[in-house]
């Protein structure tokens, strides 16, 4: 009769499982396992599997949480843009950029839009350049490229307005190069041709004109103010029977009362046959939330 093994069940199980990693040893080698030994071995294997799989499970959970948060933060960025809220848009861009391995370009695109709202064209250009590097071509390349071209053009216009046309010309040339590197889909794809493609073509025409424009002339001298009583340029001369100059209100007369009486006289004249009419047209106000560029 074989003597009992003085080792504990855990020790016997570990010895047998660690010999070759396949399970119980050959019975002829004295490797018989009791039911208790087998159960202990199974528990050890399960614990090891749990420890090895825990990092993978944690990574999957983090990726799932990030995927679920992208639409939320993207919606916040769109809402902030429509409200023209630069700080809100910048915050949404920061949240989009946290561990964004799915669409990392969107964080830089939103950050560039925030700089656009601040009229910081150089910073916007930097963010859009990074977004274009990360977008990896395809259909998404077109709107990112449009934003980059417009930010470079705006920076050039800013320098031109400061009398630095020579510094602006290289920027216009760079913007033209970015337009020229646009993928064919920006112009051939019907979904892009009417939006991004059209904007790129229009920007190309503007940039060409700005590069060919002569250097800006120094500001002209201010016109000498006309002598007292003479009409200023753009002001109609008084007609026959109309006293020149502005009548001086009588002492004690309320100016608001005079204005009301003048409006009543004008209204009566407009209602009369052949009376003067105001045919001036007014410009439509820009729609709410329209882009500043």
TrEMBL record:
The keyword Membrane applies. Residues 1-21, 256-269 have a biased composition (Basic and acidic residues). The chain crosses the membrane at residues 49-68. The keyword Kinase does not apply. It comes from the Bacteria. Residues 1-28, 182-293 are annotated as: Disordered. Residues 215-252 have a biased composition (Pro residues). Keywords: Membrane, Transmembrane, Transmembrane helix. This is Tetratricopeptide repeat-like domain-containing protein. It comes from Tersicoccus phoenicis. The lineage of its organism: Bacteria, Bacillati, Actinomycetota, Actinomycetes, Micrococcales.
């Amino acid at each position: 009769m074989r003597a009992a093994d003085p080792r504990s069940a855990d020790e016997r199980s570990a010895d047998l499982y660690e010999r070759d990693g396949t399970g119980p040893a050959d019975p002829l080698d004295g490797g018989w396992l009791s039911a208790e030994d087998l159960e202990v071995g199974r528990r050890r294997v399960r614990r090891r599997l749990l420890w090895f799989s825990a990092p993978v499970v944690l990574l999957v959970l983090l990726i799932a949480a990030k995927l679920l948060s992208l639409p939320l933060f993207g919606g916040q960025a769109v809402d902030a843009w429509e409200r023209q809220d630069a700080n809100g848009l910048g915050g949404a861009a920061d949240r989009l950029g946290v561990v964004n391995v799915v669409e990392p370009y969107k964080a830089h695109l939103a950050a560039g839009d925030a700089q656009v709202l601040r009229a910081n064209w150089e910073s916007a250009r930097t963010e859009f350049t990074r977004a274009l590097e990360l977008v990896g071509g395809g259909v998404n390349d077109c709107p990112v490229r449009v934003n980059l071209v417009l930010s470079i053009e705006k920076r050039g216009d800013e320098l031109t307005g400061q009398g630095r046309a020579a510094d602006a010309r290289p920027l216009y040339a760079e913007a033209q190069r970015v337009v020229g590197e646009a993928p064919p889909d920006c112009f051939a794809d019907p979904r892009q041709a009417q939006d991004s493609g059209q904007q790129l073509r229009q920007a190309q025409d503007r940039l060409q004109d700005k590069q060919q424009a002569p250097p800006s002339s120094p500001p002209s001298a201010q016109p000498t103010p006309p002598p007292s009583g003479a009409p200023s340029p753009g002001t109609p001369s008084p007609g026959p029977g109309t006293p020149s100059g502005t009548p001086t209100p009588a002492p004690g007369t309320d100016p608001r009362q005079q204005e009301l009486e003048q409006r009543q006289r004008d209204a009566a004249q407009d209602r009369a046959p052949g009376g003067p009419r105001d045919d001036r047209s007014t410009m439509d106000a820009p729609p709410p939330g329209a882009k500043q560029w």
